[in-house]
Amino acid sequence: MAHPVVNPANGITALRTLALFPFWYAVDAGFQQWAVAIILIAGLMDLLDGLAARVFDCRSQFGEVFDAVADGVLYGACLLILAAYTWIPWWGIGGIVGLGIYNAGLRFRYAARVGKATNFQSYAMERFAGFTAYLIGIGAARIETEYFFGAAIAIMAVIVAYDTKRMVFDPVPL
Amino acid sequence: VIVSELAFYWFTTVALALSGAGWLVIDLVRLRRALRAEPRDPDYLFGCLIGLAIIIVGLVGVARRHFG
Known about the structure:
The complex is a heterodimer of chains A (174) and B (68).
Chain A: H1 8-17, H2 20-29, H3 32-55, H4 61-84, H5 90-114, H6 123-141, H7 145-169
Helix pairs in contact in A: 1-3, 1-4, 2-3, 2-4, 3-6, 4-6, 5-7, 6-7
Chain B: H1 5-36, H2 42-67
Helix pairs in contact in B: 1-2
């Protein structure tokens, strides 16, 4: 059995997070194609760490949390960098982050209703998280950014409204 | 610059269109399974519909860029 922390899958995850620095450099220097290439490589490494976890049989609870945190840090920071250099609109990232914070607050409220620490599963939000990775590539390639971010906020608002109903009003599962 | 502007344009357009098409197939299969499941899971079904909405947004975005 592989080590739960030091293993190939977590190594790839850690390496992926380091993509943030060359990405920042590429955006700062205006190297648009390099920025897109770096995000593509990071996206491929995201697939690769899951594959490594299965091949080397090193799946662990730590690995799952580490992967989620690495995704959040890398993609969140990339969005901020793109907005800071005005490659994507500020209102786009503001809307996504604002709805994300509201959604996180709802999860605490849901945990309080259930009466214990619990992971609220939202298939729709999982799909949206995948879309966020695409949004970074779209932002770096500067493809119809206002259209894509406007649509992303509208879709996220629908998901958050649906999840609000589930977390606040629907009966909690026993 | 890694490739010419034209090559970059086509690469990003085709990559977006292909990944959207792949996502479309995956979500259609998931939706079909979700509709056939007994009992139906409305949250999973909603997730599939959101996935399809994202694909439509993506494909319209590609069309806007190319034809718009």
